[in-house]
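G., before I forget:
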Amino acid sequence: MENVLNILFCLTLLYLGTTTRIMAYLNVFVTQGILLFVILILPLFNKFSAYTFILPVMILAVKAVLIPIFIKRKIMLELEVRKSIESDFQQFNFLLLCVFTMITVFVSANMLAKYTLIDSIPFAAAFSTIIIGLYIIIFRKKLIVHVIGFLVMENGIFLLGVSIASEMPFLIELISLLDIFVAVFLMGIAINKISSTFAVDDITGLDELKD
Amino acid sequence: MLTSILIYIFFLASAPLFIGVVNKLKSRLTGRTGPSLFQPYYDLRRLLRKETIYATSASIISRIAPVIGFVSLLFAGMILPIGFYKPLISFDGDIILFAYLFGLARFFQILGAMDIGSSFEGMGAAREATFAVFAEPIYFFTLGSLAFIFGCTSMYEIFHSISLNNPAFLVFISVASISVFFLMITETSRMPVDDPNTHLELTMIHEVMILDNSGLDLFLYQYTSYLKILIYATFTSNFFNPFNVQNHYLGFSIYIMIIFILIVNLVWIETMMGRFKLKSIPQYLLFAASIGILNILVYSFFNK
Amino acid sequence: MPMNILYLLSGLPLASGALFFTFNNLKVKYRLSIFTAGTHLIITYLLFAGFIAPPQNAWFNFDSLTKLFLMILSNVFFWVTANSYKYIKHSPIEKIEKSRQIFYNMTNLYLFANTLALISNHLGLYWVALESTTLCVAPLIYFYRDKESLEAMWKYLFLVSVGLAFAFIGILFLTLSAHGTEFMDNALYITVLVSGASKLNLIWLKAGFIFIFVGLSAKIGIAPIHPGEVDAVSNSPSPVAALISASLGGTALMGVLRILQILSWTSLLQFAQILLIIGGTVSLAVALIFMFRVTNYKRMIAYSSVEHMGIVLIGFGIGGIALTGALLHLIFNSLNKTAFFFMAGNIHRNYKSREIGRIYSLLNNLRWTGILFLISFLAVIAMPPFGLFFSELMLLQGLIANNQFVLMTFIIILLLFIFIGMSRNVFRMLYRTTDKSTRTFNEHFEFSHLSAIVLLCILAGLGIFIPEPLAKIISDVTRLFVHGI
């Protein structure tokens, strides 16, 4: 059953590769948050204790509710509506690149699974999420899309943690979630200031500081 | 064997009915009364009575292209499992024959279009060829992953091996059917790939290729297109047929129901969506193909 | 008794930082911050000299490496806070009232986060604390609220966050390398990893090291991910710049050093050392290239930070006596950069510009600042008797002892050209005269000059004579990495 969720996760990544609307990016991020929540509570169906429920619920709250609301309210309303589409971008090549990356990651995860003790499918799904999040940061121009790419990367790292079954204490996970939220908060404020100072909200304005 | 032949003839006869229902529903959804359900039959009968005219610059290709298209689709229909019944032709590797029968039909249609010598048909042919390039991987990746998992390469065998007990297969099948749905839309030139109602020359893809055909040729082309969409709809519906149904009649009525649901989906999409920009269609197709690739990646490593 | 130390050390900055959100009086905040910084310094020194025993807890680790880095942090923070009032009260640019209000809050929270990172024994806690330091420092970079600081803050925040995400992947790989061993459930405690290092899976350990090194290099400020730190340092007020380049780089470096400590028990040490040497040399080369192109003196000092961090990395990569040299180099670098940035801040305040081309006749106009700037510059290029000379000498000794003559020549040439590039700029600032000087400068001997003199004297003193506690700590640290001595 977990494999199904991981496949759905990869599907969301493919969708990230094809879409151009920023709201679609946000919806993908919300979907990934919900999928993470389901992945986390799956092994808990047998042992039902309130303590272990805190983390999945917090993840759902932060990733599926708080961060999207914050981004929608503070950023999308302040930017103009017509800026919610990212144009002049090589969509087809990006999707091709994403597909090739996924193929490479899955094949190498399968080879790795022969030597070490990992589940190949969750590991590969998580790693491809991280790499595609990185691609979004590298290849896109709008700053909000950079932030969402960073968030997707963090999703992937979280999934990697789940798939490796590392014993990361709950407190650490919670605080790192808080850290990420505050980081996104700061980035959101910075984006607002940047779009009002530089009058564009992509990275074409950020090239003053160089030698 | 006899039941298979009967079902096949029923299949052939109801191909125009499928389109009739689609058109009627589409009109209803946009507030019009619309043509009668059997209008495609009347159209076909009208075309049979007309005279076939060939362009002066046309060669033998224009005479044989419609026939080849028609005959290859007839054979493709024989390979397809309809409902729960065993198809007329079934052997190992017939999935490849299925794909390339369609390829043959498309090839001759393109040749026939270019043979007429008008630039309109050439433009349509070029677009058709481009989209076919991107559409073919979808079919092969989807069916290929299925063949890989179940270990058999006959279409009847593959669809019979699908059992809905394992939930993983359930998700896999529904995901694969999304790509096949995209494929159906592309191959049969429905929205959002191609608007079947547009007659603006710059935006036509399929209609422009048959612009200069008449009479028997046009009858063959039209009927071929009706048959094509019914074949693709049946192909998509095979993903959802619960094949461990014992009663054949129940299975067949479930098949009819699924076809109807597909019609509703198709109509809904056609009414709600506009056509994509021509340059974003390859990307749309690549998305469907990548779903197929994802299926292969995941499930080829799943069977350890 | 010991647990109280822990609470004081980490809790006091947290409390002050949180308390400062409730009122706005800058002077009171300043005095309270000095009190916090002073207490922190005293406790750290007592720990350092061994007068009080550190608390024992699974989560916290107070070995000699921690004590050394804590001392560096505490020292820098104290001097920075003591001098900060002047820099932020009278800044060249107005409309920064809001920045002033959060300055001391963020600085104290930064001290808390940084202390937590240094004393943590759990890699997850270390990562969380490191990310928190990024979040505390980012608003401080935006102090001047203009276009360049905005861009600097964005780049720093983003680059470092992405880098830290990579470091987190590396930490997860470390966990993976402990799979199948008996300490699998405690795999993130550094002491556990160190003691069980021989049982770890080498592939994942290698992958983990690479990811952590690359990720943390964004925070340390070495090539090729140095732009975040360089831009941040050059566009923020001097106290913040001193904090970032003198103490934050060290904290991030400690993560790399902990992994190195784990690796020193396995056969991967060679590989890690090669990576460190490559990283250090590339940083030196990058610092060289940009030293000739820089037009902003704060950027020049930032690139000098990149250079020195590169030297430290090379020292750790060579090992042996170069390791001792690298540790000393860290200490001396922090002292030096603090003094350097204070003087740069003075120049900025008086000349109202950061461009090298606009500074003229520094020695004549701002007597004290000019002299101290010159002396800091001499220290940073490793002139004796300042300590940096001796630590670089130890580095070269280590290179010779390992028969790395080609590398040594290369490094000497790089250092020489960095010296040339930097001195070109500095001497231009000090001696250039211009006809159109319409400003008159009044320079009095201020507290910042006193602090700079004290720091530079310590720097010179430590170069000649290393006191007993420091020598003991350094030899302890060396023993962490080199076994069998």
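Residues 2-205 of chain A form one domain. Chain A touches chain B at residues 1, 3-4, 6-8, 10-11, 14-15, 17-18, 91-92, 95-96, 98-99, 102-103, 106-107, 109-110, 120-121, 124 (CB under 8 Å).

More on Monday.
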